[in-house]
Amino acid sequence: MNEALKEVLDLLDLEQIEQDIFRGRSPEERIQRVFGGQVAAQALVAAGRTVQADRTVHSLHAYFIRPGDPAVPIVYNVERVRDGRSFTTRRVVAIQHGKAIFTMSASFHVTEEGIGHQAAVMPQVPDPETLPLFRDRMLDLVGDQEPWRDWLSRPRPVDARYVTPLTWEAYKDPSLRGSETQVWFRYDADLPDDPLLHVVLAAYASDYTLVDTVLLTHGLAWGASNLIGASLDHAMWFHRPLKVDEWVLYAQESPWSGNARGLAQGRMFTASGDLAVSVVQECMIRVANP
């Protein structure tokens, strides 16, 4: 297990400071704001710790209200909205400097038998092991120069193998623009067999590439275009258990952008083709001097 993944697991081990009140921290890095996937994952951990063990999360709906400050802890207040016979509902508010920076509602459900179907079909894509590492593709683009050298040399918690072009590739070559992103990902370590942990790590990874899917359509890229962007809201539905220490295909598309906002949708498939998670996110994107 590399140090980056150890750091993520440590970030998800929240400190309980009072009943239904938890405290989390951010990595000690020179970043301007807290990564949205981290806040969503920590909030889901806080909610899950107040729910009976026989209930697993089936959906979450979240809003990013203010940028998170990575220099100070985040306090998560959990409200026990309802404990029913089959469903449990929790509301979580993340607070910094006395103000809410993030809110989330999450619903948990006992395992039940019922009707089933899957209309979504996993795209036909190359096996992940045949695809180059993200780091290697970026090095081909930017070379061994600062500030890229330091950024690309850092260990990453998630091994991501892109099927489709990177935003930086489409920035250099307009013919590579498109409205779809397909990426295999996995956490490259044997993780504990804890369903909540795998769901939380899926939530963490879900925020990595959704905004990029909007950028790819327009040939824009962070660091290459004069962009200001942020996640606005985020929704996930967990259809079946998945293991994120095994390969997961994250198929994403952007059906619309306008009014300084963009919409992206994603589906996570197991390697065997089972639809495990659906994701929708709206983001803010402002382009200065395009």
TrEMBL record:
Family statement drawn from the similarity comment of this UniProt entry: Belongs to the C/M/P thioester hydrolase family.
The signal sequence is none
Q: Report domain Acyl-CoA thioesterase-like N-terminal HotDog positions.
A: 31-109
Superkingdom as given in the UniProt entry = Bacteria
Q: What name appears for this protein in its UniProt entry?
A: Acyl-CoA thioesterase
Organism annotation: Sphaerisporangium dianthi
Q: Which keywords fit this entry according to its UniProt record?
A: Hydrolase
* Pfam families documented for this protein: 4HBT_3, Acyl_CoA_thio
Instruction: Give the Acyl-CoA thioesterase 2 C-terminal domain ranges.
Output: 180-282
Which InterPro entries does the entry link to?
Acyl-CoA_hotdog, Acyl_CoA_thio, HotDog_dom_sf, TesB_ACOT8-like_N, TesB_C
